[in-house]
């Protein structure tokens, strides 16, 4: 069964450093998302992406965050200057369409630890 | 009032028992209601997906939606140790999913 894959599974970085989290969405999907889950908290929406541009972003997704689809398969989340509070599990998700009845499929996540 | 409320208290049940989980919500724009299952160190996995008020059954799982009360439920019949996981309710009215906090369920053999 096709699945969303994320690498690395765990990333440790120093505060102020840049990190890039990588995702390979399901191949025939066109809509891509990043969510995050701080330990003990809800899964929170960060950003949605379609046709090489951001379609929606949350208040969490500030200027320190950016997303990119550098080629036909990868979808990346970059955090320019990490802060302690960026420590969380980051989930990539994809769907075929953006309609509200469309199902999202999630990857296994990247655990980001900022020291 | 928070958009989606889910009492995160852990739930331990003996094998074979019925597990009952629920969420309430405040946003009337939510049209689609989902339950995700999340195993430790894994991403959320879609379990049930409903639109209209009423019941939807899939094997041992039943999802219930009451839009008038803004209340959704998930029932797991004949629970198995393999059902031990965190269960997240999620709702959608636009391009983003809004999640509940999740219920950790432990089914004891």
Topology:
The complex is a heterodimer of chains A (115) and B (109).
Chain A: E1 5-7, E2 10-13, E3 19-24, E4 31-37, E5 43-50, E6 53-57, E7 65-68, E8 75-79, E9 88-95, E10 105-106, E11 110-114
Parallel strand pairs in A: 2-11
Antiparallel strand pairs in A: 1-3, 3-8, 4-5, 4-9, 5-6, 7-8, 9-10, 9-11
Chain B: E1 4-5, E2 11-14, E3 19-25, E4 32-38, E5 45-50, E6 54-58, E7 61-66, E8 71-76, E9 85-92, E10 97-99, E11 103-108
Name a few traits of the molecule.
heterodimer, A: 115 residues, mainly beta, seven-stranded mixed sheet, four-stranded antiparallel sheet, 0% helix, globular, B: 109 residues, six-stranded mixed sheet
Beta-strand content of chain B: over 45%
- Low-confidence parts of chain A lasting 5 or more residues at pLDDT below 50? none
What is the number of helical segments of chain B per DSSP (H or I, 4+ residues)? 0
Q: Report the sheet with the most strands of chain A, covering strand number, pairing sense and barrel closure.
A: 7 strands, mixed
What is the averaged pLDDT score of chain B?
Answer: 91
Protein chain pair with the most extensive contact, residues per chain: A-B, 27 and 26 residues
Describe this entry's structure for a reader:
The complex is a heterodimer of chains A (115) and B (109). With 115 residues, chain A is an all-beta fold. Chain A is 0% helix and 50% strand. Chain A is built from no helices and eleven strands. Chain A has strands at residues 5-7, 10-13, 19-24, 31-37, 43-50, 53-57, 65-68, 75-79, 88-95, 105-106, 110-114. In chain A, strands 2, 4, 5, 6, 9, 10 and 11 form a seven-stranded mixed β-sheet that branches. In chain A, β4 (31-37) and β5 form a beta hairpin. Chain A is globular and about 35 Å long. In chain A, 37% of the residues are buried. Chain B is mainly beta and 109 residues long. Helices cover 0% and strands 55% of the residues of chain B. Chain B contains no helices and eleven strands. In chain B, the strands form two sheets. In chain B, strands 2, 4, 5, 9, 10 and 11 form a six-stranded mixed β-sheet that branches. Chain B has a five-stranded antiparallel β-sheet with strand order 1-3-8-7-6, with no helix packed on it. In chain B, a hairpin with a 4-residue loop joins β7 and β8. Classes of the chains: A mainly beta (115), B mainly beta (109). At the A-B interface, β5 and β10 of A face β4, β5, β9 and β10 of B.
